[in-house]
Structure formats: C-alpha cells, structure tokens
Write a structure and sequence with these properties.
Residues 50-182 form the DUF4232 domain. Pfam families: DUF4232. Residues 1-34 form the signal peptide. InterPro entries: DUF4232. Helix content is 5%, strand content 41%. With 188 residues, it is mainly beta. It has one domain (8-22, 49-180): Immunoglobulin-like (Sandwich). The radius of gyration is 16 Å and the shape is elongated. The relative contact order is 0.28.
C-alpha cells in the first residue's frame, strides 16, 4: 500500500516504485531557470506562495512512453505580483459533470527547491497517466475525462484545467496517475 503524507493543501499519496521507474525516461540535465522564474538568493525574502487566484493552469504539451501519457501542466502567474512555487500540486481527473474519476494523483520524485514566478511567467508539473488499455476493462472501468481539478502547491482552493482526449480508470485502485513537484522549465 502507498504511504500517505498530509501536505499543506489537498491530500496526495506518495507514488510507488513503478511510477518512479518510468520517470527517468523524461528527465534531462537541469537547464537554466526559465525567463521570469528565479531561485531565491540566500538570505533574500521570497515572495509569498502563489495562490490559486494568481494562477492560470493549462495543458502545455503531452507525450507518450511506456504505456502512459505524460501531460505537462503550466502554472502561469496572471497576477501583477511575483509569487513562489514549491512542492506538489494536487491533481485529479474530472468527467463532463465535474465528478472525480479515479484516484488523486500520487506524488513522484522530490521537491528540490522553491522558485519565484514573476508576473506572466510560469512553473510546470508533469502528470503521468497510465493508459486504460493496460488494464482489464472490467477492473479499470475506463471513463472519458474532460479535464483536471488542480490545487496549486500549498493551496486549499482548486481550479479547472481542460485536458481533452483522455480516459482514466474509474476504479481508484487501478491506473493511478502520478504528478511531479513543480519545476521551472517544461520537460520534453
């Protein structure tokens, strides 16, 4: 059974070894910080955490590998003030009636450091969704999903991010998605 951690914000589960084994295929050498995003200088006071109402969350891109679809989520600062991102977003699939489908995404990887997101700049998180075709349909109970309920790190309010053309297992014990901590640059 996956261990459970009580984060500040939405409930998330720690991911298992299978999710951790699939992620290295996506990892690359760490690039320089994205324009508008910076790490905090030692001793400098960082801006406050990014609030849900400061962020627009959307699909930045997607790819496929090893029986899964990888969706890069963009968390864009739409406010007129810099804010800080650190940690994991809470993520779950929604159907057309805004009902949750399946389990909340498990956390995978580590949250290395906080970073500042200037107005108009973005942070990113990678969602891995196992393909429903990997499972017995009677056990998985695949359903069409239209988007994600996303809680930014350390936030108690969620927002909707449209993600079309996906299915998820309604059975919360099968095909559980995983999500990385927020990072400064989009991943391929």
């Amino acid at each position: 059974m996956a261990s459970r951690t009580a984060p500040r914000g939405p409930v998330a589960r720690s991911s298992g070894l299978v999710a951790a084994a699939a992620l290295p295929a996506l990892l690359i050498a760490a690039p320089a910080p994205a324009a508008g995003a910076s790490t905090s200088a030692p001793g400098a006071e960082a801006p406050p955490d990014c609030r849900t109402d400061q962020l627009e969350i959307s699909e930045y891109g997607r790819g496929a590998a090893t029986g899964s679809t990888y969706i890069e989520l963009e968390l864009r600062n739409t406010s007129d003030r810099a804010c800080t991102l650190y940690g994991y977003p809470g993520v779950s699939w929604l159907d057309i009636e805004a009902h949750q489908v399946g389990a909340d995404a498990d956390r995978t990887g580590t949250a290395d450091r906080s970073f500042t997101v200037d107005p108009g700049a973005s942070g990113y998180a990678t969602l891995r969704q196992p393909n429903v075709g990997n499972y017995d349909p009677a056990e998985c109970r695949p359903e069409n999903v239209v988007g994600l309920r996303v809680y930014p790190p350390d936030a108690y309010e969620s927002t909707f991010a449209e993600v079309r053309g996906m299915q998820a297992c309604a059975n919360p014990d099968v095909g559980v998605p995983t999500v990385t901590a927020v990072h400064q640059d989009p991943r391929p």
